[in-house]
Design goal:
Elements (H helix, E strand, L loop, with lengths): L4 E4 L14 E5 L7 E2 L8 E2 L3 H13 L4 E5 L10 H10 L3 E5 L17 E5 L5 H6 L1 E2 L4 H15 L3 E7 L7 H14 L5 E8 L4 H4 L3 H4 L3 H12 L6 E5 L8 E7 L2 E6 L3 E4 L4 E4 L2
Parallel strand pairs: 2-5, 2-12, 5-6, 6-7, 7-9, 9-10, 10-11
Antiparallel strand pairs: 1-15, 3-8, 4-12, 12-13, 13-14
The structure holds iron/sulfur cluster (SF4).
The site of iron/sulfur cluster has 10 residues, from strand 3.
């Protein structure tokens, strides 16, 4: 596509892998229109071509995955046809999820029936705390809460993601109550789950902000327990380190190679026997 390097993905079944992976996360490209202090995205990631994305999705299907999750960076910055790749994933029978910071949320999201779930970040119960974890985006709290209202009205299944840090730990329970109100005010429940991520000292944000943001493991555990005790009207998931998950695998392109990472196999280079330049 567009003269970029692209390659076909050899089915992993060729390699006789027996894994329990169910969910494939496609990290489409690293760019983002925001700068979060906890961001674990690596700038070394390349943009995934449309062809590779298509091949990966076919491979997910062959391997019996149930869902494809589209992320980045910010997936709405992917220079290829995001709508079309989501529709392709749906046509294969995969459940589709998209993780976005909501800044470029489509105005016609009600008609995006090829997205089964939206994943949106909320990192504070107040503007100051949520925005304080981001640079150059003083309005992000307003943007993201507006996006949640739109998702609520449209009845779109939504997952909330929160990274627990020294900056927002005192507001975690308040975020829970805010989300409870949103769910209770909806015509039909639209919040599917709340994912509580442990801060990881990786990537372009996490690596340099460890000292400033990391909370002790024991505190993370306590906060997750306290949130669960709220008995919220949606599922609460403890997400300590998704890169170590046995059921989720991440895919990205780096230095022209397709890479994969999961708790089962660590970081591996995917077989890429057919490399071609297409225009
Ligand atoms: S964590 Fe923030 S900066 Fe990083 S990709 Fe997500 S929205 Fe962008």
């Amino acid at each position: 596509m567009n003269g970029e390097r692209s390659f076909a993905v050899r089915p992993m079944t060729d390699l006789n892998f027996q894994t329990k992976i169910q969910h494939g996360v496609m990290m489409l490209q690293p760019k983002c229109n925001m700068t979060c202090s906890f961001c674990i995205t690596e700038d070394t990631m390349d943009t995934m071509s449309y062809t590779v994305a298509e091949s990966l999705l076919r491979d997910f299907k062959r391997r019996g995955f149930s869902s494809a999750i589209f992320g980045g960076g910010e997936p709405f910055f992917w220079p290829h046809d995001l709508k079309s790749i989501l529709q392709f994933a749906k046509s294969l029978g995969l459940t589709t999820q998209i993780g976005t910071n909501a800044i470029k949320m489509p105005h016609d999201l009600a008609s995006w029936n090829f997205v089964d779930r939206w994943v949106i970040p909320i990192d504070g119960a107040s503007r100051d705390v949520h925005n304080g974890l981001r640079k150059f985006r003083a309005r992000h709290w307003d943007i993201v809460t507006h996006a949640l209202e739109l998702l609520q009205i449209a009845g779109k299944s939504t997952t909330i993601s929160t990274v627990l840090t020294t900056v927002n730990r005192h507001e975690i329970l308040e975020i829970g109550e805010y989300l409870r109100r949103l769910q209770n005010l909806a015509k039909k429940p639209f919040l599917h789950a709340w994912h509580l991520y442990r801060f990881l000292p990786f990537g372009r944000g996490g690596r340099i902000n460890r000292q400033h943001l990391e909370i002790p493991q024991s505190e993370y555990e306590t906060l997750v327990r306290q949130v669960r005790e709220l008995n919220l009207p949606f599922k609460v998931f403890k997400r300590e380190n998704m890169q170590m998950s046995k059921t989720v695998e991440f895919y990205w392109v780096e230095s022209g190679k397709l890479m994969a990472q999961s708790g089962t196999r660590g970081v591996i280079e995917m077989p890429t026997p057919t490399i071609s330049n297409r225009s």
